[in-house]
Task: structure prediction
Amino acid sequence: QRLAGIAVDPLRIVGKEMKFLTKNIRQLLGSGHPILDTVAKYYTTSEGKHIRPLLVLLMSRATSNAAKSPRQDQLPPQNPIDDPISPLNILADINPSASTNASFPSSPQSSPLADSSILPSQRRLAEITELIHTASLLHDDVIDTSQTRRSAPSANINFGNKMAVLAGDFLLGRASVALARLRDAEVIELLASVIANLVEGEFMQLKNTALDEAQPVFTDDTLAYYLQKTYLKSASLISKSCRAAALLGRSAPEVVEAAYAYGRNLGLAFQLVDDMLDYSASPGSGALGKPSGADLELGLATAPLLFAWKQNQQLGELVGRKFSREGDVQMARDLVLRSDGLEQTRALAQGYADKAVDAIRTFPECEAKDGLVEMCVKTMKRRK
Ligand code: FPP
Ligand code: MG
Ligand code: MG
Result:
């Protein structure tokens, strides 16, 4: 029974599915090489927020009773070849006891415990989104030379850059195999394009081509570039996986578009709040599970700073040299905190969160739809 005005807990709505998420992901990551196995599974041992799979599962349920498409069912999964990426299994041909047991799950099966409104393929999609996200974190921590992730030493610190990069690649490989086994060309294309988008977003962040570093001036392009980067780096995975969930559920085209619009707007809101928290959490407080103020230290000008810069041209010089001189980071931080950059960022994020809610207004009323709305509320209330 849904009670008006009482907040639903999104996690409870798809709790049964979420309970098996980490175990299933670890199954997708088994490798015959014991060290690769450890590094690949490293970020699955700390409890992440699992926002992307949660959204995929909520979207799957929320669209299960929405309009369906006459889209023809595609070919059912053929016999998948045995784990193609565990060459050590070859040893089992010669010596069965050398088998690594690195069995890769075949096509997703429905489980007796599973929620009937969520298809096995949608459950697997949820796992794939977390794999891609985790791969990007492994690489991101190398690029950012991060020391910690989720209050523990980051993979690059524990295992070194080489193994962290390779483990990220391994996750992408396994995600691709799982994706291919869904046997849905449109969904494969969507998620493959996400991987490219993540790299494009990271590249835009690395090398800002909208900025003349010798003489940076704030223009409309500055904000547009930042938002495009933000879509690619953060919103693409959320929006395209929401779209893919609707597609796997054979939703009608307008439902597919709504799912995408929801994910895109929520994804943008989510990253804007993230960029805000990097300023509002006190430095070194550990409240985020990582040091706050990290963006400026990395030379990154995110939304709060861009809005401050719009009002105070003095910031341009600091942006140009990427806050690299002694005292730059502190000065930039103070100027941002004294401006209304944080409020403007919050207002922009709220606008996107509202758009996300609006995108799914025509979905049939159900608990999962309430859960999707609540995810927008939670995104705006987030403190870490
Ligand atoms: C976290 O951002 C990083 C991302 C959202 C994406 C990073 C993308 C790449 C490194 C490109 C390679 C992609 C793949 C799929 C291998 P952040 O550094 O702002 O956040 P953090 O505080 O969590 O580190
Ligand atoms: Mg980082
Ligand atoms: Mg980064």
Observations:
- Residues 80-88 have pLDDT under 50 and may be disordered.
- Residues 140, 144, 146 surround magnesium ion (ligand 2) (CB under 6 Å).
- The first helix runs from residue 10 to 13.
